[in-house]
Amino acid sequence: MSVWDSIVGQQQVVDQLTAVSTGDARGIAQSWLICGPAGSGTTQVARAFAAALESPDHGLSDTPTKTSAQILAGRFPDVVTLRTDKVTIGIDEVRELVTLSEQMPSTAPWRIIIIENTERMLERTTNVLLKEIEEPSPHTIWLLCAPSAQDVLPTIRSRTRLVTLGVPQPEQIAQYLEEHVTVEETADTRSSAAARKTGARKSSARQSKNGNNTAEKTAQSASAAPATAPRPVTHEVAARIARLCEGDLNVARLYAQYPSVLKDRDRLVANIVTMRRASQAVIFAGQLYGSAQSQAQDRAERAADERQQEFRTLNGLSADEPMPSELRRAYVALGKKDDIKRQATRLTRDVLERAFTTISSIYRDVAVFQNDAEESVGLINLENRNEIAELSTALTREQTVARLDAVAEARRRIAGNGNALLDVEALFCALLPASA
């Protein structure tokens, strides 16, 4: 398969970058800004472009070369990716990249540096990068990723070549899911029900210590269940996910791989459209927060396990072979509890952000009914059509907009490191009907 096969709905961009990678290397721009909305695949495009630039076949062969396979897997020494679990990208991290950019590539034609979430750079951090972006080392290419050009400083925009991604169409996403994604029902998704119980108990009393311990034991028991064998995504499920993901390919993959995460979404929508009392709001908020924490913790631990397994593979060690003393410190560092905790905190926010997008889609559908626009734009939450139609008559247009504003406010509070559980509870209470 070509290095571009994982890029969905971006044919114009693929054609553009393929022409660049197969052209005269002396004319290649060395500083790029790849922009696109969440889930459009900015990082994937950057990696594929890097593979096309570094690989002898320019990434066009049906069978990937060793070079392109390593780049796509994030294991190639001359292609470095900076990502962060923090709110901002640190100035010291960028300084290290600038120093690295001055070094000659070890095996490939280029040293390529990819920076995810460039918009998280503060101005003083950007200033460290500016000179290198403007006059890069002769053998270095910078690939910066951001949601949009407006999200980065003008000084960066003016020194880079802009590539803009579009939102993939539902048909393209559905086809990709059917052809490239398999269902992998694992422990983290099967434990979500236990996590919701844990969250509900934490929210209503932060009250019953014994109850929380019981729920945690239940979650641990669920996590011990064996995983089922991967299976293809059916056409019907792929089409439904393509509608619900709202153009976000990352969310589409998540829903397809882990059906229990999709069920959590269904449950969230059902809770919102039927919620009538403050007590329900608090309970449902606790369930959402507990599920987010559980999913995030399991994903962070799984990522640490994968890093350690990769370390073993690179050093020629089997899964049950003792770790040599000279490698033990580096091996243990890949699974540090502090790093897992920090990543879990970030991933919890990601799960909540996805939930906020789901809640916004409900009130988007309400607005569709209120403006008699179903035939022209359709519904996202088609399975809940009757409840949403009822909600559209219970709310005024102003109240619908106020609820969308409440979701935006919850996003801002959590992004500002507020108390996430309290913020979610406040949001759910704000969504209650006026008579509640």
UniProtKB/TrEMBL annotation:
Record's compositionally biased regions (Low complexity): 218-230
Q: Where is this region: Disordered?
A: 185-232
SUPFAM superfamilies for the chain: P-loop containing nucleoside triphosphate hydrolases
Q: Where is the composition biased (Polar residues)?
A: 205-217
**GO annotation (BP), single:** DNA-templated DNA replication
Q: Which InterPro entries match?
A: DNA_Rep/Repair_Clamp_Loader, P-loop_NTPase
Q: Which domain of life is it from?
A: Bacteria
Pfam families in UniProt: DNA_pol3_delta2
By what name is this protein known? Answer: DNA polymerase III subunit delta
